[in-house]
Amino acid sequence: MDEAAVSIEPLEAEAPPPPPPRRIAYRHRLPTRLWHWLNALTVFVMLMSGLMIFNAHPHLYWGQYGANFDHPWLSFHGRPVPGWATIPSSYNLAAARRWHLAFAWLLVVPLILFLVTSILNRHAPRDLAPTRDEIRPSHVWHDIREHARLRFPTGDAALRYNVLQKLSYVAVIFLLLPLMILTGLAMSPAMDAAWPWLLDLFAGRQSARSIHFICAMLLLAFIVVHLVMVVLAGPLNEIGSMITGRFRVPPERRRP
Amino acid sequence: MISRRRFIASGASGLLLGGCDRLNRSPEFRGVLRSAEKLTMNTQRLVSPRDALAREYGEGDMSPVFRSNGTSMPGTPEYARHLAENFANWRLQVDGLVARPLSIPLATLRSIPHRVQITRHDCVEGWSAIGKWHGLELSRILDAAGLSTRARYIVFHCADRFGDKPYYESIDLIDAFHPQTIIAWGMNGHLLPVPNGAPLRLRVERQLGYKSAKYVQRIQAVESLAGIYGGKGGYWEDNVDYEWYAGI
Asked: Which of A20, A40, A100, A240 sits 20 to 30 Å CA-CA off A93?
């Protein structure tokens, strides 16, 4: 662009620019949408029934063993988790276990299917893995600042996950959820006999129980941030796109 | 006055929770949840060799204090008499679908060569304790009694009561013949203390603690659990809907 062109721009800008055409893009494929909503249900049931199970013995330990006479690293009195946050809402360990161990199957089997297919169909390496460019500290810092100022990506950039999304989704799908499942299995006396490496991996059943709890709290934190982001980024368009797959692309922001 | 946001939030939470509680009361839904128990058991058995051993620990890994849970002193006059006699007349009865019903004196059980195992006790509530158990393999007792080919479950009848209901438990033959399934008479180098099930208790090392029945008096081999008390195979199973398969 040469000097002359720049100098005449204000003249042209007097007339309002034509509104950009409404662009609808296909953003989420069916398996992603199905898995998302199944997980939305399953994770809530797992968290709330898990918190009821936690109420049965609200003390956490490191190591192979841990009970009332041993030293906990986290300990509460009574039944610390209130009824509005548990399934069922009044104390019932047996029922909470029924919910937890049944819905665990809905977490495990679809997760394995998703991991396998998303690697085979290149969804994970193409859409979820951050590029070398994106994980430069300066780029990550830039994205954090943009998020903090609530300036979300527009145009084509809104059709891709940004680096903060990628990092959190990769952490949840490839780290937190598998850790939840493996630590859950490590608490099973039958699985410890079948797969003794579970006990070695987590340095004991009570350590596995502690990691299970910590990962659950990290998942809860992810859900809270995720929901806040959906609300801030435009809940109707965001939720709609996760239902229909179609996303109304926010028009390109003009550089200031 | 509550804000609109708070009203909506509590309404949503109430709807969700009310829904879950209502589902929890529905027999059909509980049936669906309960079917997961069978799925879990079959899957765990599929990936687990029949004789896969629970981890055995070293002396240094043992819990300094092995807490007890459930009954700590069976309150019946009969048990009080046995305790006063130092269990001299306690016998283990073996009956049901066996060729030779037995009544084994405690002294005999203690005098035969036995197994010692340091294992982890995992309570359904979440805690674990590691202790050393001394006892006789259940398989040897069942072999001595000559188990019928019709037998599918082994039921353990106990001396303790919850209210007016006797404690009992049951396992299938895979766990009954597992090498670590023992009738223990000793713990941590001593005779079993009363809170931990004196004079005899079961150890089922691949399942949660409530399966390891304490104060065992009678072992019964059966074809089906249906006719026994509530029919679900154990005191907790009958009364509060704990899983019969407690491998997880």
From this structure: A40
- pTM here is 0.90
Q: How many whole angstroms separate alpha carbon B229 and alpha carbon B158?
A: 13
Residue range A11-47, pLDDT digits in tens: 454 556 666 667 888 888 888 899 999 999 999 999 9
Cβ pair B173, B131 in contact under 8 A: no
Which residue in A57, A93, A190 is closest to B207 by CB distance?
A190
**Residues of A numbered 80-119 whose beta carbons fall under 8 angstroms of chain B's beta carbons: which are they?**
83-84, 87-89, 92-95, 97-99, 101-102, 104-105
pLDDT in tens, B137-173: 999 999 999 999 999 999 999 999 998 999 999 999 9
pLDDT tens-digit map of B204-226: 999 999 999 999 999 999 999 99
CATH code matching the domain that covers B56-240, chosen among 3.40.50.880, 3.90.420.10, 3.40.50.720, 3.10.20.30: 3.90.420.10
Q: The complex's ipTM?
A: 0.92
Across the interface, which of B21, B34, B54 has its CB nearest the CB of A192? Answer: B54
